[in-house]
Amino acid sequence: MDLDYSLALGLAAALAAILGSMLGLGGGVFIVPLFTLYLGVDPKIAVGASAIAVVTNSVVGSSNHLRNGFTNIRLSMLLQVSTAIGAIVGAIIAIWADASLLKALLGVILVYSAFSMIRSRKAAYPNAAPGTPDPLALRATYPDPASGDEVHYVPQRVGVGVGVSTGAGVLSGMLGIGGGVIQVPMMNLVMRMPVKAAAGTSSFMVGMTAVATAAVFYSSGKIDPRVAVPAMLGVFIGSNLGSTLTKRLKTDRLILVFFVILTYLGVSMILDAFDTNPFG
Prior knowledge:
Layout: H1 3-22, H2 28-38, H3 43-68, H4 73-96, H5 99-120, E1 140-144, E2 149-153, H6 158-175, H7 180-189, H8 195-219, H9 225-246, H10 251-273
Antiparallel strand pairs: 1-2
Helix pairs in contact: 1-2, 1-3, 1-9, 2-3, 2-10, 3-8, 3-9, 4-6, 4-8, 5-7, 5-10, 6-7, 6-8, 7-8
């Protein structure tokens, strides 16, 4: 593997990290399609490298989200157990699954997430009133630098959130995407959390989820250092910038950009799975 190819992997990972950190998706949702569609990486090797990179992305990106107050730590700890268990199950499935199946599944997930996010663009919830029921003490507050407002919220339908998180963990393990592509729309649409709070909470969670995925792929010999190391370095550079941009951009514009990118990559992955991709 020559230096130019390693640089290309690193730059692709940096771009993925910038985009992934901005909405708490973990970067893996972009790394896998970029590596497989445009850089010729085997899908299973790409998933393994993505899991390693997602850990880096979470560590760097979530630190900024924590400083900005976007992360609901108590909620993340509640959801993390079921997500991690699901990730281990998903990673075991991925080791034996057909590569084309993984591509097609990731494509469907990308398109689903794109339309979920564009739907959430109009899902602006009013601040939670002081008397809003909060049996699990999950109420949180953060200042939104883009609007200048103080945002108060209480996550709703927590039991449903735990169930969806398990499914997100399975998909994370299978596809190396960290689970954020499911978690963020779920927190926003189902649990009625503001997008920035959902992104910050998801970013904190995806690293721990990806550790479980990476461990399974490593034990099965699916971690290639020639791919994983450039991916990790690129993510380290990009994730800091992405999480910084989150606080400066208005949510609706941010989601519109993600809709276009996720739809394009999702359709490309589905077509590539059937060897009919006109974009690659």
